[in-house]
Request: fold
Amino acid sequence: MMTSSLADLSRALAERRLSSVELTQAVLERIARINPTLNAFVTIDAEHALADARAADARRAGGEAGPLNGIPIAHKDVLMTAGLRTTCGSRMLENFVAPYDAHVVAGLKRAGTVLIGKTNMDEFAMGSSNETSYFGTVKNPWNVACVPGGSSGGSAAAVAARLVPGATGTDTGGSIRQPAAFSGITGLKPTYGICSRYGLIAFASSLDQAGAFGQTAEDCALLLNAMAGHDPRDSTSLDRPAEDYTRLLRARGSPHDGAQPLAQLRIGLPNEYFGAGSDPDVAAALDTALAEFRRLGAKIVNVALPNVNLSVPVYYVIAPAEASSNLSRFDGVRYGHRAAKYDDLADMYKKSRAEGFGAEVKRRILVGTYVLSHGYYDAYYLKAQQVRRLIADDFRRAYEKCDVIMGPTAPSTAFRFGAMTGDPVQMYLNDIFTTAANLTGAPAMSIPCGFDRSGLPIGLQIQGDYFAEAQILDVAHRYQQATDWHQRSPALNV
Amino acid sequence: MKWETVIGLETHAQLSTASKIFSGASTAFGAAPNTQASPVDLALPGVLPVLNKGAVERAIRFGLAVGATINRRSVFARKNYFYPDLPKGYQISQFEIPVVQGGAMTITTAQGEKTVRLTRAHLEEDAGKSLHEDYHGMTGIDLNRAGTPLLEIVSEPDMRSSEEAVTYAKALHALVRWIGICDGNMQEGSFRCDANVSVRPAGSDTLGTRCEIKNLNSFRFMQQAIEFEVRRQIELIEDGRSVVQETRLYDPDRNETRSMRSKEDAQDYRYFPDPDLPPLVIDEAWIERVRAEMPELPAMRRLRFMATSRVDLIEIVKSRSNVDQEGVDDELFDESVPVLQASALKATYGLPQSDATTLVSSRAMADYYEGVVATGRVDPKLAANWILGELSAAMNRAEIEIERAPISPVQLTALLSRIDDGTISGKIAKEVFDAMWAGDGDADTIIANRGLKQISDEGAIDKIVDEVLAANPAIVAEFRAGREKAFNSLVGQAMKATKGKANPAQVNAILKKKLGA
Reply:
């Protein structure tokens, strides 16, 4: 049961093969056994989870149960959950209890999910390894000496270790996709504006997006259905007709219908993604995956994204700039950590923020303040925004020649703890393939496509044009019907 | 050395929306602390701003009223600084591209008319309040005000004296109230002015170093503060020292300005476009809707009160439009424009300029005036005299605004028409007015109860005149001797005998006849 995908569990609940209470109890028991090793969770609320489960079973008995009814999930601790501690992985919010639900949290609640708890993350979503959390590192279930990826490391580890069948994450520069790749699961970041940011504690406002983790594309599609939708409380939330993101997954016949299910698909491979620098095992796994896509009928075309290599420097100007402003509200005045002793207002600000924030957060606030400051704004922030437009134009031109763009999600597999913490810039280069989709706002996902020689998972990134979530989910789904990488789970020795 | 004063004003007008500019919390004044601050105003984690269209509408209205350009696309920007009454650690404002650009105000001082150009006006949110007095060693933070919509109106440094600055401030104050975008309540902080003051040798065209005097919340303090600051700067320069660019506060108790922060501490606000808000796009249809609903503006209304006919109004307006004013939207003076057409359909009253100017000092007073004369039952000049005279005096004594006057336009019309139709004299009418003000009823009731009807019956007056002549032979003799004043004395006697009720014109006529004068 615990290795079943979210979609399979949904069917099992619908067919009354098990109850939500039984499922939730199994989940909680497994978490109690395994989480102490992985540290994927910051907060577990067993009492309310079981109450949610009982309510879900009652709804099902009463005949009102959608596909997510009774499914246990976890929320990344960057999302506000009413009545439940929300820490953002930071000492600054160590004891902060959220007074309201984020829009995506409310959507999943309305869909009947069971809230198990809040997952660990890099502090304020700033990181690629979940090594900056105030609540300790998260271990990669495939190898506890390795990072799970970040910043949504806790959600990724929880799903990878089959602690929960699905979890939410947020993705600002790759924080869903890269941990999905490192942890061997599926993760989706939708088009910017599809999921409301109300209740998503802001890191970089023009880049943040909530998304989903699951074992399969179908899992992610089911979660996205409950998360997406217009929210008048978010001025950047798009007002579009509602979509069923699973619609293409059911559209055609069985996976073994013989025909080439992806015969109409043109896959773009950017020259810039396949140069030197990627791990050879990653390159090999990509080749194998592309061969599989050809077998499924897809055509491969080369595309050029001449400015995409500027994604990381552009991202590391814009994201810290917005973050430096977004994090100003954490000043010890109204909520959050306030220093115990201070002499005056300035002292209170300095001590509260010095104590409340970790080193990476401080680093990014300093960088962000610098690039916005008088005399530097034009050369850094303004210039970065202009180059951002050039990168978006590259993708627009590429999508004239192809339907989706593929490549590795990350240049390597999960690295060992401490391997990159000495050099922040080297850590930032983890995001080299993922940041473009945040800068342009286009949807992207990562799916497992193999393992390296040491048994660590490798992720394939599928990017689509704006609003192509259903399409990229379908492409991933067809691949997952023909392969079984996504069904592998780690042999946790606990 | 002759010095010239250069003044520019920055005014923050709180817009009269029911809820805040970026949240749904109420903007009502006077609530218990922190009871009108939503999660958005408190800057809780994860909250986001949503623009209040009513605030934009009021900005458009202002832009149209001052003949400014309404930018079809403007951008909200974050102004970053730390202060406890600024919950987000930044204020959402507008920086490079404001919603309103340009425009001008015409002011009238003792020296005549002058145009004060406006640089821009932009939307932003107000901060909360820091309360120092009630808390020993601490500061109380009340966030009720945080997020209230403000329109920051910036003038060019066109003013050359404290009188001009105060006149401009008063005209701006009257305008924002007139067009219904701000209640102008300076005690409650709805209308706050900062003055940028510098001096330079007369005849120079480079600007001197300026100082900003912040938060002048009364016109009197504004005048005093500017005058002190000008003297201070001149003294400094004449002493061989120089003016340091800084922000200063005015202390009314000591009548002096004091430094608040110096240039060394000047803040870098690190403005950047707010990524949580899309650019504000205003289309033609919206602007036209606002334009169509604009009340007739004071300038036009004043001209209409002065004009003697529709044709005369159009002529006056056209002649004024020949004065070329930079930054002023000439559409105001184009007779093909609906604004003038609409005005030209209304009544004209042929009033003298001074009457017209005072009557349009507030929209309420102008509305009151037309409430009286629109009925057509009262002579326009008589109505103006009474509103600017008796009514204004009574308002001043009671220290109330015309909106709270206990005599309505309808009631005043009734009184004035009794003068027009001869029922009572002007003098008696004053007595009736006082009684009406005190709440004794309407004009006719008071006239009846007190028997104040003018005596106009010829026979009765004839009899009274005979009695007066008989009773005052000495005065009659003086008159016959050539003293004209004796005549008035006899009239006075007749009025006294009738307790003022005799129709003075008839008394005059009959007396003249009887005296053979």
Remarks:
- The longest helix of chain A spans residues 378-398.
- Residues 6-261 of chain A form a domain with the Amidase signature (AS) enzymes fold (CATH 3.90.1300.10).
- Chain A touches chain B through 42 residues (CB under 8 Å).
- The CA atoms of residues 192 and 418 of chain A lie 32 Å apart.
